[in-house]
Amino acid sequence: MTTKPTYYGRLKVREDGRIEPEECFVATAVYGSKNAPEVQALREYRDNILSKSRFGQRFICFYYSGKGKAAANFIKKNLPSSITIIRKGLDFLVRKYQKE
């Protein structure tokens, strides 16, 4: 028996709980690769923690409505000096998530 996928707005949640699309625009801009271990940890945080609350679901929808990609492009183009500061904040989130 197959189950219908769940959707947050236009985002599909697969049976394994992972959200499509899988891109993490800001994290990729900050860490330099969509395959960086920190980016993977942030995807897992999105899928396993953030997506479980109404606020988290709303944030995910907002982020993937184009705002996340726009923010990543803005950071890369106009604020590259802020990447170090943003990385410290994301590193904190990754460490906290990985301890849970």
Characterize the structure shown.
- The protein is mainly α and about 100 residues long.
- The chain has one domain (about 5-100).
- Helix content is about 60%, strand content about 10%.
- The protein is built from 4 helices and 3 strands; from the N terminus they run βββαααα.
- The chain has helices at about 25-30, 35-50, 55-80, 85-100; strands at about 5-10, 10-15, 20.
- It has a 3-stranded antiparallel β-sheet with strand order 1-2-3.
- A hairpin with a 5-residue loop joins strand 2 and strand 3 (about 20).
- Helix 1 crosses helix 4 (about 85-100) and helix 2 (about 35-50) packs across helix 4.
- The longest helix has 25 residues, at about 55-80.
- It starts with 5 loop residues before the first strand and ends with a helix.
- The mean pLDDT is about 85.
Quick summary:
With 100 residues, the chain is mostly helical. The protein contains four helices and three strands, in the order βββαααα.
Distance between the termini: 33 Å
Mean pLDDT: 86
Strand order of the largest sheet: 1-2-3
The coarse overall form would be globular
Helix content: 55-70%
Largest sheet: 3 strands, antiparallel
Number of helices: 4
| Radius of gyration over C-alpha positions, nearest whole angstrom | 14 Å
Spans of at least 5 consecutive residues with low confidence: none
- Give helix and strand order, one letter per element, not per position: EEEHHHH
Number of domains: 1
Secondary structure tally: strands: 3
**Which percent band covers the strand fraction?**
5-15%
Structural class: mainly alpha
